[in-house]
Amino acid sequence: MGECRLREEGVHVRSKILIAYQDDSWVKELSSLLSDAGYRIETTKVVSETIRKVRGRDTYVVLLDDKMEEIKAFDLVPLFKKINPRVQIIVISSEESIGGVKRLRDAGIFYQAMKPVDLEEIRSAVACAFEKIEREQPREAFIPFMIPGGVPA
What we know:
There is one protein chain. The chain is 40% helix and 19% strand. The model is unreliable at 6-13 and 140-147 (pLDDT under 50). Helix 3 runs parallel beside helix 4. By secondary structure, it is α/β, with parallel strands linked by helices. The protein has one domain (19-136): Rossmann fold, CATH 3.40.50.2300.
């Protein structure tokens, strides 16, 4: 995360974060931290609602609990990436086994934060995720063309 520039003072218009997490007190802390940094926050505790919001295409970063409704994050991430390949997923996990961590990475997550999480780590990961989105955003093509000064008759 150290190589990422934090640009929170100029948070991009498309800075919506979906917090898909089971613990209400943790959601409240995350929401407060990230909304104070200028991000728009939505929350959910239900997998079907999370899918609907990822499908909406205006969700760019998802903070995902490692388990929702008894479904593990490494099973949800490929579905979210199929629905919206540009979504960046930060999993907040208690998974310590090498196999579990590998499955999360292979599923296409942007970052994995271990529980209990340092809030500054999450803030930094979110800023880096948005920076990655901006870097990968297709730029408008500029095609220079010549306007003839005069065409001989």
